[in-house]
Amino acid sequence: MKGWMSKLKAISALIVLSLVLSGCGEPFLSALQPKGEGSEMIFDLMILSIVIMLFVFVVVMVIYTFVIIKYRRKKDDDPNFIPKQTEGNHALETLWTVIPIILLIILAVPTIQYTFALADTSPEVNEEGEEEDSLWINVTGAQYWWHFEYEGLEVSTSQELYIPTDRKVYLSMTSQDVIHSFWVPTIAGKMDVNPTGNTNEMTLLAKEEDVYWGKCAELCGPSHSLMDFKVVAVSPGEFEQWVQDMQGVTGEEVPESATAQEGQQLFADNCMTCHAIGADPNKMGPNLTNFGDRTKLAGVEDYNKKNIVEWIQTKGKDMKPGNLMTSAPYELSDEEASKIAEYLMTLSPSDITTENAEDGVYKDSDLSSLFPEEEEETEEENGENTEEQGNEENTEQTNEENNEEQTDDQ
Ligand code: CUA
């Protein structure tokens, strides 16, 4: 009776545990509810490997149970009976060598295919067979925040990465101190960022508008677990507007209220060495261009004036232990810190915010306004071609060769 009870307890615990664990993961932070191209591929591989594992488990358990029941020693069996020995049975050994090989091949083919597909950062090709312009974003990891610089667009931001949906976004990634790992589980896989000078590349393709949560997935110091960030996926038309609004920011914009104006002066005197407002990428601390639109303070704390003042006054010592700002030399009164907070909260250059990622409104765009330099590039290429042709004696032949080369490349 006692043994039966403990078995019942164990089974109930297992049921409760599986119910609790199956509820794990919010939709905006779960690799099990993929909303991006990369995460879908990874999810498919997970399902495939689970199916194969289940198949092996079931087959083994069926044979095991069958053998236990069928060949159990009966009461009237001869106790000295030794069953027929099958050591060195060629058919059996071949069978249990070939089956795992087949299973591994089934697993390996899509895994290798997807690995190369996920590492592919070549430009996308549209329906007419033309290469589309690629939106590249330089990502820099730092203790304990992320910097995002939109290449060629004069837009920088940090902590909250705005991207368009339904369009591949290309990330060029590095670190300014130690190794971090960029991970937005709902959209894509992980990518390490290294401080040693090499740049890693990956792509993001979000299929639905939403605010996706990102984590640093590499132990990087005392506040590693607090190194959260967001990916704000808005429709392409809204993204285009966001970029245009962000491009206009210089940091000189004068806020409306007198308190915020005083805060702006205090910010300029005490904070501008490390922080930028506008596209300036060469700062040690997070870019604050659209700080007023942030959903979280420092990636993890509730976004409100009280917390911002506390952050300024404690330099984030307890909110994010080990962060670089703790060595900043400024000293401010609570009143001054409050004025700076008020100023920072006015920094909202765009009407496009996280709300647009959640309101279900979709504005389409091919983002062509973000790539005006396309024609110049073609001219440059033509220029190079002409030079090459000039150097050759037989211009016509070279032209043909060039055309052939280009066709081959495509
Ligand atoms: Cu950065 Cu962990």
Brief summary:
The protein has 410 residues and is of the alpha+beta class. 41% of the residues lie in helices and 15% in strands. A hairpin with a 3-residue loop joins strand 11 and strand 12.
Helix fraction?
Answer: 40-55%
Largest sheet: 5 strands, mixed
Mean pLDDT: 87
The CATH architecture category of one domain equals Sandwich
What is the topology, as strand order, of the major beta sheet?
3-2-1-5-8
Provide the low-confidence segments as ranges: 376-410
**Bound ligand species:** dinuclear copper ion
For this structure, what is the CATH homologous superfamily of one domain? Cupredoxins -  blue copper proteins
Assess the beta-strand content as a share of residues. Answer: 5-15%
State Rg.
29 Å
CATH topology of one domain: Immunoglobulin-like
Annotation, overall tally of beta strands:
12
Silhouette = elongated
Helix and strand sequence:
HHHEEEEEEEEEEHHEEHHHHH
In angstroms, what separates the terminal alpha carbons? 75 Å
Keywords: Copper, Electron transport, Heme, Iron, Membrane, Metal-binding, Respiratory chain, Translocase, Transmembrane, Transmembrane helix, Transport
Main location: membrane
GO molecular function: copper ion binding; cytochrome-c oxidase activity; heme binding; oxidoreductase activity
Pfam family, one: Cytochrom_C
